[in-house]
């Protein structure tokens, strides 16, 4: 049982004891009072939340929501589970070993295309994190200037690849107009050595690392609001959310509150994350995580800096069309209405 649950149980027991000691009336509690007591004493629903990858400050809101008993107070007894790269993203979810997992919107639609009844129930990132970076001294000043130049990507897969396709498409370009080079996850080294003219990176990963290492680069201007892609979301199965709607709301609203707390108090977010990621015991790593957290909070919050679990349904629809029109991504037009819902987000 999580610390927050133990504390909540202790408070309930103590409150019950005080009520018994202080009650001198011979009248029996009304049926309504008994019903309310049963609700108050109801145990939170056990929920396993899959975070993927290794512990990282990018998951700080979930760590905060668990450690600060935000999930518990909302009605969910949460177990956080990190699974490795060798495990399929939705394997544990569809097997019932996880109840909710963090995944990108494109991964949701691709999983549904393969017959999995997964559904996005709440926003985690409001902004897609992929950008194209060039050396500060480069004469490439815009996406249009990339025409004829080489662009390094880890490979033709995942968010980097889809992000590049969307960025080029919005500028009226295609992969035929540039030289796409698969370089693995060596963007910094490849750009520094001049192997490529530009690289596709994450704003809260490689862009942060460039700065920490003193490498001067620029991210080319991209209208993020126009990108037809949805990044990290809270995902479950339709079967689970239909059976546990209150727990689904607890996860979405609890995570949203965790994001809010991380934004309001980054130091607390870092201290809580250190309990999960022992590499942050190193002062340099701790400060590096601070920079990553700062960049990540910008992705998690809306344009006015607010935390919200509501998803942009219009962007979901645009993503569905974009992925269907992009060869090799989806085999049929997606049912976006079945893939995403805002019914579990209160704000």
UniProtKB/TrEMBL annotation:
<dbReference type="InterPro" id="IPR015168">
    <property type="entry name" value="SsuA/THI5"/>
</dbReference>
<protein>
    <submittedName>
        <fullName>NitT/TauT family transport system substrate-binding protein</fullName>
    </submittedName>
</protein>
<feature type="domain" description="SsuA/THI5-like">
    <location>
        <begin position="56"/>
        <end position="269"/>
    </location>
</feature>
<keyword id="KW-0732">Signal</keyword>
<feature type="signal peptide">
    <location>
        <begin position="1"/>
        <end position="22"/>
    </location>
</feature>
<dbReference type="Pfam" id="PF09084">
    <property type="entry name" value="NMT1"/>
</dbReference>
<dbReference type="InterPro" id="IPR027939">
    <property type="entry name" value="NMT1/THI5"/>
</dbReference>
């Amino acid at each position: 049982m999580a610390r927050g649950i133990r504390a909540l149980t202790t408070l309930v027991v103590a409150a019950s004891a005080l009520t018994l000691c202080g009650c001198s009336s011979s009248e029996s509690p009304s049926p309504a009072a008994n019903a309310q007591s049963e609700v108050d004493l109801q145990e939170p629903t056990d929920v396993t939340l899959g975070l993927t990858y290794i512990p990282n400050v990018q998951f700080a809101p979930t760590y905060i929501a668990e450690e600060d008993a935000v999930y518990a107070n909302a009605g969910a007894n949460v177990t956080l589970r990190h699974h490795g790269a060798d495990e399929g993203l939705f394997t544990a979810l569809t097997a019932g070993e996880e109840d909710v997992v963090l995944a990108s919107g494109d991964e949701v639609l691709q999983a549904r295309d393969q017959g999995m009844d997964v559904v996005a129930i709440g926003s985690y990132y409001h902004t897609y994190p992929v950008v194209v970076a060039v050396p500060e001294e480069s004469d490439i000043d815009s996406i249009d200037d990339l025409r004829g130049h080489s662009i390094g990507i880890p490979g033709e897969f995942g968010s980097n690849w889809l992000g590049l396709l969307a960025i080029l498409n919005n500028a009226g370009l295609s992969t035929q107009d540039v030289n796409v080079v698969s370089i693995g996850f060596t963007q910094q080294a490849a750009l520094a050595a001049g192997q490529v003219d530009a690289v596709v990176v994450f704003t809260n990963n490689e862009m942060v690392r460039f700065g920490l290492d003193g490498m001067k680069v620029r991210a080319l201007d991209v209208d993020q609001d126009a990108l037809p892609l949805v990044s990290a979301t809270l995902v479950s199965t339709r079967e689970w959310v239909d059976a546990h709607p209150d727990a689904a709301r607890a996860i979405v609203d609890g995570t949203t509150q965790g994001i809010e707390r991380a934004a309001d108090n980054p130091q607390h977010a870092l201290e809580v994350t250190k309990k999960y990621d022992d590499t942050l015991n190193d002062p340099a790593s701790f400060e590096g995580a601070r920079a990553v957290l700062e960049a990540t909070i910008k992705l998690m919050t809306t344009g006015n800096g607010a935390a919200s679990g509501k998803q942009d349904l219009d962007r979901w629809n645009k993503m569905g069309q974009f992925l269907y029109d992009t060869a090799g991504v989806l085999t049929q037009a997606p049912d976006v209405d079945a893939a995403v819902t805002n019914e579990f987000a209160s704000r």
